[in-house]
Amino acid sequence: xxAFQIGFTVxxxxxxxxxxxxxxKECEKPFRRLLAFDKRDIIRIVLSVLTSQAVCSLFLNxxxxxxxxxxxxxxxxxxxxxxxxxxxxxxxxxxxxFLDKICTALRKAGV
Length: 111
Prior knowledge:
- The chain has helices at 6-23, 39-69, 73-109.
- It is mainly alpha-helical.
């Protein structure tokens, strides 16, 4: 590893906040089973992932890389677009597959 960079920690916290705002209340009630998700559940999942990727991966991480290493911001931003697109698709797929199980485990743990 290298030196600790607080910016990436801030980005991780913002990402958690975004997911919490979109999905936090929904873990209080059971999600519907796979392929029986309510349309609103899917929309919340998609919006949470796209918002997190846009704000955190594209903008904040690009800013921190530019700030810490002197790379031009717009160059970092543009090169991160394909990564953000691929990660968005993967995160949406995995959240649809596993979010119900994660929420059930959190409820059982009393979190």
